[in-house]
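S1.2 Input.
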Amino acid sequence: MAGGETTGENFFNTIQKPFPDVVDGKLDTEKFLEAANGTVTLLEHMGRGFTPMARDLSGNVGKLTKVYLSDKLKNSTINDMLIAERDEGKNNVAAEALIWYTRSIHYLELLLDKLLDEEENGSSDIKEILNNAYATAVKPYHKWLTQQAVTLVARASGMFISKASICRALNTSSDKDEFQKDYKAFVCNLNVVRCHVQHFLTQENLDNKTPV
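S1.3 Output.
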């Protein structure tokens, strides 16, 4: 196979755009939003069980996009956009949207990472994988009532989710090695950007951890 040639299509080498590299400690907003919209589509491809989460992500990406479009030059990087919003004494729409978006993609990152590991080595129940990802990434920021509501939704959603169906939906025609390479590259990319954003939010005292 010639260098750079792929052996078929999958979600990660066709639809999903990579998150931008961190340049001088900052993330390009337009490229970030393009990739963020891809994660919404990713969840939609993963099946009906992920519809509530896809809608949540879409809402937060929409809020970030609206703030970005209000002044593209001023908001050219995610970092500058949040600092400007804070310094202008606004109501932190972008910060709150980014906080929840980042928590959600942490959940997605843990889920994807575990699914790939399970495909190679294990046999854990999909509900256990979902519950563990939620407990780590999102549950600490939910009040008890919200936790119960999420648990009920997760139980209902679990009827429409399987490890095999997720992988089939994301890999349309590429061979297994090609798919796993692209899959792992995306999870790594997601981790790098998520960690950078969470560090930035904490550093700038923008990470509101109050449970809702």
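S1.4 Remarks. Residues 24-203 form a domain with the Glycolipid transfer protein, GLTP fold (CATH 1.10.3520.10).
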